[in-house]
User: Which sequence fits this backbone?
Protein backbone atom coordinates (compact mmCIF):
# COMPACT_ATOMS: atom_id res chain seq x y z
CA UNK A 1 0.00 0.00 0.00
CA UNK A 2 2.83 2.41 0.88
CA UNK A 3 4.63 1.65 -2.39
CA UNK A 4 1.51 2.37 -4.47
CA UNK A 5 0.97 5.67 -2.67
CA UNK A 6 4.54 6.78 -3.27
CA UNK A 7 4.28 5.81 -6.95
CA UNK A 8 1.05 7.81 -7.24
CA UNK A 9 2.63 10.85 -5.63
CA UNK A 10 5.64 10.72 -7.93
CA UNK A 11 3.39 10.34 -10.97
CA UNK A 12 1.25 13.31 -9.91
CA UNK A 13 4.33 15.47 -9.31
CA UNK A 14 5.79 14.60 -12.72
CA UNK A 15 2.60 15.13 -14.71
CA UNK A 16 0.18 17.69 -13.31
CA UNK A 17 -3.27 18.45 -14.63
CA UNK A 18 -2.04 21.92 -15.56
CA UNK A 19 0.71 20.47 -17.78
CA UNK A 20 -1.79 18.19 -19.46
CA UNK A 21 -4.23 21.02 -20.16
CA UNK A 22 -1.46 23.29 -21.45
CA UNK A 23 -0.23 20.58 -23.80
CA UNK A 24 -3.80 19.96 -24.93
CA UNK A 25 -4.22 23.62 -25.89
CA UNK A 26 -0.95 23.48 -27.86
CA UNK A 27 -2.00 20.28 -29.62
CA UNK A 28 -5.44 21.64 -30.50
CA UNK A 29 -3.85 24.80 -31.92
CA UNK A 30 -1.77 22.66 -34.28
CA UNK A 31 -4.12 19.82 -35.21
CA UNK A 32 -7.63 21.01 -34.35
CA UNK A 33 -10.21 18.90 -32.57
CA UNK A 34 -9.75 15.97 -34.95
CA UNK A 35 -6.11 15.54 -33.96
CA UNK A 36 -6.70 15.41 -30.22
CA UNK A 37 -6.30 11.85 -28.97
CA UNK A 38 -4.88 10.57 -25.72
CA UNK A 39 -2.19 8.79 -27.70
CA UNK A 40 -1.12 12.00 -29.49
CA UNK A 41 -1.24 13.94 -26.23
CA UNK A 42 0.80 11.25 -24.44
CA UNK A 43 3.44 11.45 -27.17
CA UNK A 44 3.62 15.22 -26.77
CA UNK A 45 4.03 14.88 -23.01
CA UNK A 46 6.45 11.96 -23.41
CA UNK A 47 4.39 9.72 -21.18
CA UNK A 48 1.82 6.96 -21.47
CA UNK A 49 -1.95 7.43 -21.95
CA UNK A 50 -2.55 5.84 -18.58
CA UNK A 51 -0.72 8.67 -16.83
CA UNK A 52 -3.08 11.18 -18.43
CA UNK A 53 -6.16 9.23 -17.34
CA UNK A 54 -4.89 9.60 -13.79
CA UNK A 55 -5.76 13.32 -14.05
CA UNK A 56 -8.46 13.49 -16.76
CA UNK A 57 -11.31 11.03 -17.14
CA UNK A 58 -12.02 11.39 -20.87
CA UNK A 59 -11.66 13.55 -23.98
CA UNK A 60 -14.78 15.55 -23.18
CA UNK A 61 -13.37 16.62 -19.81
CA UNK A 62 -10.08 17.45 -21.51
CA UNK A 63 -11.77 19.70 -24.09
CA UNK A 64 -13.74 21.52 -21.40
CA UNK A 65 -10.58 22.12 -19.38
CA UNK A 66 -8.65 23.31 -22.44
CA UNK A 67 -11.45 25.68 -23.46
CA UNK A 68 -11.61 27.06 -19.93
CA UNK A 69 -7.83 27.64 -19.94
CA UNK A 70 -7.87 29.36 -23.33
CA UNK A 71 -10.60 31.74 -22.15
CA UNK A 72 -9.17 32.50 -18.70
CA UNK A 73 -7.86 35.89 -19.78
CA UNK A 74 -11.34 36.99 -20.93
CA UNK A 75 -12.75 36.61 -17.43
CA UNK A 76 -11.23 39.88 -16.25
CA UNK A 77 -12.44 41.58 -13.09
CA UNK A 78 -14.77 44.51 -13.45
CA UNK A 79 -13.19 47.80 -12.50
CA UNK A 80 -14.87 50.79 -10.94
CA UNK A 81 -14.19 52.94 -14.00
CA UNK A 82 -15.85 50.63 -16.51
CA UNK A 83 -19.30 51.44 -17.81
CA UNK A 84 -21.60 48.48 -18.53
CA UNK A 85 -20.99 49.08 -22.25
CA UNK A 86 -17.22 48.98 -21.69
CA UNK A 87 -17.53 45.74 -19.74
CA UNK A 88 -19.53 44.10 -22.54
CA UNK A 89 -16.99 45.29 -25.13
CA UNK A 90 -14.15 43.89 -23.00
CA UNK A 91 -15.76 40.46 -22.73
CA UNK A 92 -16.69 40.45 -26.41
CA UNK A 93 -13.20 41.38 -27.59
CA UNK A 94 -11.62 38.96 -25.12
CA UNK A 95 -13.62 36.04 -26.50
CA UNK A 96 -13.07 37.21 -30.09
CA UNK A 97 -9.30 37.33 -29.54
CA UNK A 98 -9.30 33.94 -27.82
CA UNK A 99 -11.14 32.35 -30.75
CA UNK A 100 -8.80 34.11 -33.17
CA UNK A 101 -5.78 32.67 -31.34
CA UNK A 102 -7.41 29.25 -30.77
CA UNK A 103 -9.95 28.60 -33.59
CA UNK A 104 -11.23 25.40 -31.95
CA UNK A 105 -12.54 27.39 -28.95
CA UNK A 106 -15.54 28.72 -30.90
CA UNK A 107 -16.59 25.20 -31.86
CA UNK A 108 -16.26 23.93 -28.31
CA UNK A 109 -18.29 26.78 -26.85
CA UNK A 110 -21.08 26.21 -29.36
CA UNK A 111 -21.13 22.46 -28.81
CA UNK A 112 -21.35 22.62 -25.03
CA UNK A 113 -23.40 25.59 -23.75
CA UNK A 114 -23.38 24.32 -20.16
CA UNK A 115 -19.60 24.23 -19.69
CA UNK A 116 -18.11 26.59 -17.08
CA UNK A 117 -16.44 28.97 -19.56
CA UNK A 118 -19.66 29.46 -21.50
CA UNK A 119 -21.69 30.05 -18.36
CA UNK A 120 -19.20 32.63 -17.08
CA UNK A 121 -19.28 34.55 -20.35
CA UNK A 122 -23.09 34.55 -20.36
CA UNK A 123 -23.16 35.62 -16.70
CA UNK A 124 -20.76 38.50 -17.30
CA UNK A 125 -22.84 39.75 -20.23
CA UNK A 126 -26.11 39.26 -18.38
CA UNK A 127 -25.02 41.25 -15.34
CA UNK A 128 -24.15 44.21 -17.52
CA UNK A 129 -27.47 43.91 -19.34
CA UNK A 130 -29.17 44.23 -15.96
CA UNK A 131 -27.08 47.26 -15.03
CA UNK A 132 -28.01 48.87 -18.35
CA UNK A 133 -31.64 48.84 -17.21
CA UNK A 134 -33.00 46.40 -19.78
CA UNK A 135 -36.51 45.31 -18.72
CA UNK A 136 -36.42 41.87 -17.03
CA UNK A 137 -38.63 40.31 -19.70
CA UNK A 138 -36.06 41.22 -22.38
CA UNK A 139 -32.85 40.42 -20.51
CA UNK A 140 -32.51 36.82 -21.72
CA UNK A 141 -33.08 37.86 -25.34
CA UNK A 142 -30.59 40.71 -25.15
CA UNK A 143 -27.84 38.71 -23.40
CA UNK A 144 -28.35 35.80 -25.80
CA UNK A 145 -28.17 38.13 -28.81
CA UNK A 146 -24.84 39.55 -27.63
CA UNK A 147 -23.46 36.07 -26.91
CA UNK A 148 -24.62 34.63 -30.24
CA UNK A 149 -23.09 37.54 -32.14
CA UNK A 150 -19.76 37.00 -30.38
CA UNK A 151 -19.71 33.27 -31.07
CA UNK A 152 -21.07 33.59 -34.60
CA UNK A 153 -18.64 36.24 -35.84
CA UNK A 154 -15.69 34.87 -33.91
CA UNK A 155 -16.37 31.34 -35.13
CA UNK A 156 -16.85 32.43 -38.75
CA UNK A 157 -13.59 34.38 -38.77
CA UNK A 158 -11.79 31.38 -37.31
CA UNK A 159 -13.32 29.09 -39.93
CA UNK A 160 -12.25 31.47 -42.69
CA UNK A 161 -8.71 31.56 -41.33
CA UNK A 162 -8.54 27.77 -41.27
CA UNK A 163 -9.92 27.55 -44.80
CA UNK A 164 -7.18 29.91 -46.04
CA UNK A 165 -4.36 28.26 -44.11
CA UNK A 166 -1.57 27.18 -46.40
CA UNK A 167 -3.28 28.47 -49.56
CA UNK A 168 -3.19 32.26 -49.67
CA UNK A 169 -2.95 35.20 -47.31
CA UNK A 170 -5.94 37.19 -46.16
CA UNK A 171 -5.04 40.33 -48.11
CA UNK A 172 -4.82 38.49 -51.44
CA UNK A 173 -8.01 36.59 -50.71
CA UNK A 174 -9.98 39.76 -49.96
CA UNK A 175 -8.63 41.43 -53.09
CA UNK A 176 -9.81 38.48 -55.17
CA UNK A 177 -13.28 38.42 -53.62
CA UNK A 178 -13.57 42.21 -53.84
CA UNK A 179 -12.73 42.10 -57.54
CA UNK A 180 -15.34 39.39 -58.06
CA UNK A 181 -17.97 41.48 -56.27
CA UNK A 182 -17.08 44.53 -58.36
CA UNK A 183 -17.66 42.60 -61.56
CA UNK A 184 -21.17 41.44 -60.61
CA UNK A 185 -24.19 42.48 -62.64
CA UNK A 186 -25.05 46.01 -61.37
CA UNK A 187 -28.77 45.50 -61.90
CA UNK A 188 -28.84 42.32 -59.81
CA UNK A 189 -26.23 43.15 -57.16
CA UNK A 190 -26.11 46.95 -56.77
CA UNK A 191 -25.44 46.88 -53.03
CA UNK A 192 -22.77 44.17 -53.13
CA UNK A 193 -20.90 46.03 -55.85
CA UNK A 194 -21.03 49.25 -53.85
CA UNK A 195 -19.40 47.72 -50.76
CA UNK A 196 -16.76 45.70 -52.61
CA UNK A 197 -14.01 48.16 -51.68
CA UNK A 198 -15.07 48.07 -48.03
CA UNK A 199 -14.74 44.29 -48.06
CA UNK A 200 -11.23 44.53 -49.47
CA UNK A 201 -10.01 47.01 -46.85
CA UNK A 202 -11.91 45.96 -43.74
CA UNK A 203 -10.38 44.84 -40.45
CA UNK A 204 -12.17 41.86 -38.86
CA UNK A 205 -11.64 43.02 -35.29
CA UNK A 206 -12.78 46.57 -36.02
CA UNK A 207 -15.89 45.33 -37.81
CA UNK A 208 -16.62 42.99 -34.92
CA UNK A 209 -16.45 45.85 -32.44
CA UNK A 210 -18.66 47.96 -34.72
CA UNK A 211 -21.23 45.18 -34.58
CA UNK A 212 -21.09 45.10 -30.79
CA UNK A 213 -21.59 48.86 -30.76
CA UNK A 214 -24.67 48.51 -32.97
CA UNK A 215 -26.14 46.03 -30.51
CA UNK A 216 -25.33 48.33 -27.60
CA UNK A 217 -27.08 51.17 -29.41
CA UNK A 218 -30.15 48.97 -29.72
CA UNK A 219 -29.96 48.07 -26.04
CA UNK A 220 -30.01 51.75 -25.13
CA UNK A 221 -33.35 52.01 -26.92
CA UNK A 222 -34.80 49.26 -24.75
CA UNK A 223 -34.29 51.39 -21.67
CA UNK A 224 -36.81 53.79 -23.18
CA UNK A 225 -39.21 51.01 -24.21
CA UNK A 226 -42.49 50.30 -22.36
CA UNK A 227 -42.35 48.22 -19.21
CA UNK A 228 -43.37 45.16 -21.22
CA UNK A 229 -39.85 44.81 -22.59
CA UNK A 230 -39.06 44.37 -26.27
CA UNK A 231 -40.98 46.44 -28.83
CA UNK A 232 -43.90 44.64 -30.43
CA UNK A 233 -43.39 43.08 -33.86
CA UNK A 234 -46.28 43.80 -36.25
CA UNK A 235 -47.26 41.57 -39.14
CA UNK A 236 -45.29 43.73 -41.55
CA UNK A 237 -42.02 42.86 -39.81
CA UNK A 238 -41.01 46.39 -38.72
CA UNK A 239 -40.34 46.71 -34.96
CA UNK A 240 -42.45 49.40 -33.31
CA UNK A 241 -43.03 50.62 -29.79
CA UNK A 242 -46.45 51.14 -28.32
Assistant:
Amino acid sequence: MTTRTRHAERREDALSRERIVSATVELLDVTGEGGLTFRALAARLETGPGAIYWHVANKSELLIAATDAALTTTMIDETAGDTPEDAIRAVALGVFDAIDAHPWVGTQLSHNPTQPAMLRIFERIGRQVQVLGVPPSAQFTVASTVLNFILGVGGQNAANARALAGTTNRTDFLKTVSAAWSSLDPSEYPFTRNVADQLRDHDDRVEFLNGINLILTGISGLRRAPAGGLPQQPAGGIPTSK
About this structure: Residues 1-13, 233-242 have pLDDT under 50 and may be disordered. The chain is about 70% helix and 0% strand. The two ends are 75 Å apart (CA to CA).
